[in-house]
Amino acid sequence: MGPSYDFASANSKANHHTSLAITPVDPNEPISAPIISSYNQRIRPLLDAIDKLRELMVMEEGIQLPTIVVVGDQSSGKSSVLESLAGISLPRGQGICTRVPLVMKLQNHSDPQPELSLEFNGEVTFTDEDHISEDINDVTERIAGRGKGISNSPITLVVKKLGVPDLTMVDLPGITRVPVHGQPENIYEQIRDIIMEYITPEESIILNVLSATVDFTTCESIRMSQSVDKTGERTLAVVTKADKAPEGLLEKVTADDVNIGLGYVCVRNRIGNESYEEARVEEANLFQTHPLLSRIDKSIVGIPVLAQKLVEIQATSIARNLPEIVKKIDDKLNTSVGELKKLPKHVNSAAEATTTFMQIVGVVKESLRKILLRGEFEEYQDDKHMHCTARLAERLSEFSDELHTCAESDPIGDFLMDEIKILEESKEISLPNFLPRTAFLGLLNRKVKGISGKPIEFVGDLWDYIEEVVMKVLMQHVEDYYQLQLSTRRAGQNLIAKMKERSIKWMQEIVEMEMVTDYTCNPEYISEWNKLMAQRDMFLFELFENEARPSKVKIDGLWKVEHYDNKNRCGAPIKVERLGEIEVEGLRQYRHLIPQAFDLRMRMIAYWKIVLRRFVDCMALHLQLSVRNLVDKELEMEIISESVASHVGGIEKLMEELPSVASKRVRLNRSIKKLRDCKAVVANMRDRIVSYGD
């Protein structure tokens, strides 16, 4: 009996956390001996679960399964290795024998009569050992055509046979670089893409089949496996044709120049018409008696050793990955259910369509109430642009600042000159010192006209912003109904245009009212005017009491009268409390009008504050009323009018969902069913995992 094989120590650099003891292997025993054991009876439920998940195509959901993937260069002996493990004949011939991925499910079977079947595209075909090779070829032609091309659509071969190891493997097309007649020019790229798809996932175990007759470092299969498994921790190498090139084989497998982390197993291919039992005997004799091959450690030679290694590697991988697979199934199921719930309700009648339509309108109104009226932004937490009450308040504040900082609002610009000019043109035959009202109204008209474009422009910008908000909310809630999208977009745009026009007309009337007359009952006007007028006497004193005066000077001992200008004093600005420093150059020539002009300017300063405040306050009140009417009344009526009353085909046609939504619903329902089936498969596996590691 050969030495026992300790997987845990042999594969320490694979860094597996779970290891399982292996029964010693005698190469002379029948193939069933090392395979039929309590070990395989214990792993079978786990392997069945993984196989069932594969049948359910859980990998389509982005969930990878532990898989033994068989790769090798063309003519490396892949088919011979798989035949020896399964005890059946696979297609042979020149060129690529495996043209589609072949999922081989080997199951130890207590009945001496084997059961073989092929599964593809949802069909199951039963076969037997005499016809299995022919049937595989037939199915391959149905999938990949009669030529020599390949396909990525898999065939599943189920082999239930006494003595075979409990394994599931995926055999992939052999790697070839030079296309032969009947093969596409890019055959290498096609094969490479299929292989990389299978070996890239971290859950895959790579069974790399190498011929002893070649330099391992030149094998394309080695290059591919190293590109995804640089440390070799999930790669096992099978060296075939040991009897054809025994020289240096020991050095090849012990030197490990290509970094095979899970080690090597050397085997002899079945030759000619040898039975599998005869091939086993010949293989055992070869590695026991050959002068070179007998030097290779018996723990890495022979098909029985390979079978046992694969069973153990497979068991360890399943035990390690199954908890994460269960978690991924749960997560993906929850995600898919959540996505399905977010899809619009599928309507099947006019009543359902009407109910869904009104629900959408109600949800839109509530969303707009939150962001436009109540200042609740949880739906758009990270989108500051949609925090509408805050943004509208900011815009009003900016509007107020703009009005108060414009040229018309400067209290000391061209100080008293406009007033003097209008007073000169307002002269009439009347008692002096009466302030003509026409002069005040003329100044007021000119100032209001100067800012008249700003409120109108502000109203337009304000409604442009509101339109952006309303349309975003509308489109968000009707995005899954194309016809409803079109009608609600028209309804929203039409309504905003009407309300914008209404607001502009209203603001134009406000501007016109301010231009034609003056009035306020606000006591702040009189209070402010009185405070400003309290500075008049001081201003007049500063302006006129420091003019140039005659003065006596002594020249050559004689006193003479001389006029002089106190330029330093007379040219300086005059500081007036509440207004600041005022340039007065040129004002003195209008001495007779200065008192009235000062009064007129102070009245305008006091009243202008009222006017500007009235613009902002009225705009704020009008805005809030308009937005409330928009949300509570007008939007719903406009949508109903535009969407239902004018739509050809009725409410059902209006609520017809997009083809993309319909296909997404089908896809999600299919995915949810698949994931629920997968969840049921693995539901009882968690507790078993621990026992398999004991």
TrEMBL record:
Residues 597-690 form the GED domain. Keywords: GTP-binding, Motor protein, Nucleotide-binding. Residues 62-323 form the Dynamin-type G domain. The keyword GTP-binding applies. CDD domains: DLP_1. It comes from the Eukaryota. This is Dynamin-related protein 4C. The gene is LOC125420659.
